Each structure stands twice: as structure tokens, then as C-alpha cells.
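Structure first, sequence second, as always.
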């Protein structure tokens, strides 16, 4: 086989292989004034990335290539102490592995989560969730894709605004009401496990007012799930300014659950740059009424409907994206094209 044929074959494969066959790249950026240890968890049965947890010093970044159809979650661990052998624990977001690598284990709440379901030639779905509480600011930004591709996340330091009944330590993290109180109405469980029966609480509304584009409770779909096609993604910790997590919290708040309600914020979140695509907090230009969510086995929350496993209510179209018709047809196209090239090659021998 001559070099001309080999180079032609390589070019042909490059031309007929869609970008979606390779998936997206994820870049993690640490703009905090301290080291962060990102954790990575692939959904059950799916392929892993090259790491399940790593050290990310302040001011540094690291990238990974995801396979097509990958789905899972990312988070930041803080206050970690690991010895020379890589053994240790973290103050927040610990995955319980006792190692820098999480090795298939999820984050202990409270923790800020970035969740992804990559399409196979179709739309990616992503969100930043506070359903399991909050431990640090984080945003997700897409680049090079088509569609809405809006930035999402939470740049506000909720640890400084956290009510005392939800506060962890000296403002190290902020629990969800579900974790703090365990009641079905906060966890969207039992009789409250449907969108009709589980409504925003005063606590989830507080989270939503501070971070309008993040999930605040399990059925907060319409303003919290985002889509993009063919993009690469950047996950940035402490995106707007160095976190003030170490600053003592001086506010005093009641030690019992709040009652009543607060007005839900509708403005742009400070420090978060939104794409100019017509998307508004009220949901203009984007509708997600057709989406439902099944529980995630690693959520760490009592909620049976934590948004991590994206699925249409009829279990069809988005499931097709996750399984990927294009992932099966692309290799067939390549094989057909290769066979044609071989036939042409034989003619000139």
C-alpha cells in the first residue's frame, strides 16, 4: 500500500467523520485564590474521562476530551489535604474515595454541580445545579457551537448569604433544605415527587434570586437547562473574583426553617456574561415544558428527581440522542467510503 493511498484514506476519514463522533472537550479553569480539586463522575454504564479527580492550583487550567454521548457531572472539592501517596480527604465536595481520584464515587453534599449530557451529532444538554446545596461559585461556558449555547452557573458567594440553619462550619458550604430538614416537600419525594406537587420553597427561591440560571430545586427546569450543538465547554471556578469563603460570616439568621416566601429574582446575575441569544430569565426564547428528569443514583440528595439524567417525558427523543443514531451510522459511512477508495485503488494497480 503506497503512501499516496494512505494519505488519501486518512483525509477521507477526516472529511466524513462528524465532530460529534469525538464528543466535546472540557477545560477546567481555577480563578480562585486557593487550590481546587475537581471531581468527575460519569453516569452509570458510561465511559470515563481520563481522570476522575485531580489537583488544579490557582491560576491553572486542564482539559479533557470526552467521548461522544458522554454524560456525567463535575464539581470542585475544597480544603483538601492529601499526603505524598495521594491519600486524604476534602472539607467540601469530598467523594469518599480517600484519594485524589474519585474512582467512580460522587460528591458528598453540599456541593455545586455542573451536569452534562452530550449529544451524538445533536444537542448537548447542560446545567449548574444547587439541588445538592452549594460549596463554591462556578460557571459553564460553551464555545464553537451552534444554538442557544448560553453561559450558566452561579458567581455569587452563597456561603456568605447562607441562613444559619443551612450553613456548614464557618461558612464553608450551604446545605439544601432537603439535606438540612429531610422533609418530602423540600426533597420532592413521596407525595411531592411531581412538578404539580413539589413547588419552590423559600430556600430554593433564595438560591434562585442569587443565581437565576442555576437549578434551585428538582423541578426548576424552564430557566435552568441549556442546550448547544457541537461546542466545547469551559468550567470555571470562582469566575468573577477570588472567593471570599474564608471571610467569617457575621450575619445572624433564625435557627429554624423559614416560612413565607421571597420574590424570585429576574435580573442578570452579577458577574455572569450571558450570550446575546434572546434568552431571558423568564424563559423567553426557550421552553422546556417537555422535559422530565429521572433520579440520579449518585445525587447525595433525598430527591428522587434530581436533574442529572435528562430524559423526555415519553422517553424517546433525548434518549435517542444519548444512545445516538449518528454514532452508529457514521462508522457505516466511513466503511462504505473506504470500500469505494479501495475499489478505485485496485483499478490503477
Amino acid at each position: 500500500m503506497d503512501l499516496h493511498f494512505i494519505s488519501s484514506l486518512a483525509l477521507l476519514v477526516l472529511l466524513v467523520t462528524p465532530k460529534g463522533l469525538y464528543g466535546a472537550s472540557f477545560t477546567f479553569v481555577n480563578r480562585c485564590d486557593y487550590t481546587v480539586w475537581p471531581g468527575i463522575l460519569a453516569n452509570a454504564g458510561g465511559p470515563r474521562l481520563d481522570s476522575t479527580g485531580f489537583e488544579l492550583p490557582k491560576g491553572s487550567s486542564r482539559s479533557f476530551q470526552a467521548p461522544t454521548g458522554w454524560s456525567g457531572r463535575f464539581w470542585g472539592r475544597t480544603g483538601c489535604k492529601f499526603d505524598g501517596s495521594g491519600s486524604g480527604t476534602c472539607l467540601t465536595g469530598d467523594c469518599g474515595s480517600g484519594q485524589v481520584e474519585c474512582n467512580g464515587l460522587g460528591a458528598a453534599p453540599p456541593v455545586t454541580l455542573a451536569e452534562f449530557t452530550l449529544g451524538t451529532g445533536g444537542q448537548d444538554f447542560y446545567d449548574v445545579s444547587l439541588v445538592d446545596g452549594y460549596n463554591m461559585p462556578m460557571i459553564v461556558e460553551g464555545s464553537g457551537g451552534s444554538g442557544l449555547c448560553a453561559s450558566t452557573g452561579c458567581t455569587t458567594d452563597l456561603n456568605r448569604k447562607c441562613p444559619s440553619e443551612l450553613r456548614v462550619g464557618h461558612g464553608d458550604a450551604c446545605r439544601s433544605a432537603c439535606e438540612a430538614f429531610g422533609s418530602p416537600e423540600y426533597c420532592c419525594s413521596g407525595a411531592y415527587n411531581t412538578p404539580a406537587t413539589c413547588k419552590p420553597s423559600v430556600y430554593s427561591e433564595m438560591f434562585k434570586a442569587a443565581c437565576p440560571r442555576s437549578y434551585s430545586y428538582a423541578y426548576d427546569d424552564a430557566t435552568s437547562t441549556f442546550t448547544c450543538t457541537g461546542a466545547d465547554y469551559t468550567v470555571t471556578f470562582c469566575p468573577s473574583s477570588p472567593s471570599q469563603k474564608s471571610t467569617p460570616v457575621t450575619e445572624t439568621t433564625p435557627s429554624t426553617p423559614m416560612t413565607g416566601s421571597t420574590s424570585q429574582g429576574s435580573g442578570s446575575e452579577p458577574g455572569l456574561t450571558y450570550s446575546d441569544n434572546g434568552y431571558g430569565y423568564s424563559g423567553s426564547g426557550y421552553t422546556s415544558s417537555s422535559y422530565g428528569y429521572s433520579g440520579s443514583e449518585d445525587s447525595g440528595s433525598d430527591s428522587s428527581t434530581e436533574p442529572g439524567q435528562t430524559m423526555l417525558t415519553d422517553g424517546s427523543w433525548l434518549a435517542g440522542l444519548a444512545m445516538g443514531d449518528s454514532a452508529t451510522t457514521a462508522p457505516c459511512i466511513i466503511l462504505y467510503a473506504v470500500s469505494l477508495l479501495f475499489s478505485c485503488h485496485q483499478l490503477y494497480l
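Margin note: The domain at 24-314 is CATH 2.60.110.10 (Thaumatin).
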